[in-house]
Write a structure and sequence with these properties.
Molybdopterin biosynthesis moea protein, domain 2; single chain; three-stranded antiparallel sheet
Length: about 70
């Protein structure tokens, strides 16, 4: 049984976005960009990403920080 402290940390329907890993397609949808643009920017090092095999991966929290920095 959950005690009161544990119940405070439960969010029904919430999504953990700080560690969410996205594919290039998901990142493109999130950023409202074309997937080829996202991949090109990742390849050029202009957008934070990590290549896993032949696929790019993006952390949502890192993209949020990148957006905040580039919007200033």
């Amino acid at each position: 049984m959950l005690d009161q402290k544990d119940r405070q940390n439960i969010f029904i329907g919430a999504e953990e976005t700080t560690t969410q890993v996205m594919t290039s397609v998901e990142a493109a949808e999130y950023l409202k960009m074309h997937v080829k643009t996202v991949c090109r920017l990742a390849k050029e090092g202009k957008i934070p990403a990590k290549k896993v095999g032949s696929e790019w991966r993006f952390l949502r929290a890192v993209l949020d920080n990148w957006l905040a920095e580039t919007m200033v």
